[in-house]
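hey so u asked for the seq, here:
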Amino acid sequence: MLLKSSMVYGLVMGSYWIFKYIFFILSVSYPSITFVYWGLTLSVPVILYSLMKHYRYYKNNSIRFFEAWGLGVLTFFFSALIISLLHYFFYSYIAPEDFIANSMNATVNLIEESQLSPQLKEAVRQVSTPTPIQMTLQAIFNNTFIGTFISIPAAAFVCRKGLNMPIEQNKQ
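ran it, structure tokens below
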């Protein structure tokens, strides 16, 4: 039931991420839209909490922390798989040809201006520009990794004792 629910919730969250990513794509041409993208990004933990809460009610208000945490991690993983299609399409066909290279150069310049060790700066300079598929795979990993940590507080809030009462008792 956990896997099935996380797939369904991953589809819901992935659809939201696609909607959100459209604003990222538009921000390449219209930088002011970046604020909308980041606002939508900040609401992702709230949506995750709502999905976990729905799962808890689906299981008769009975959920353990690690079950809720696993649901969150799997939801982020399946969401990352859904959005990866748009990531690949963006990096391959929509973004300017030098978009990834320019982003890498900006990162290298930022690191060179910092107070980091010369060995680290040299290592960053030698990194080759990633391909669109490498960027897509990295995004899947990043989203799942971030979801691992975002799911911890969301699971803790969902598993609070006061929230685990039957629905009829919560109305009093």
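The chain has a mean pLDDT of 84. The chain has one domain: 2-164.
lmk if thats what u needed
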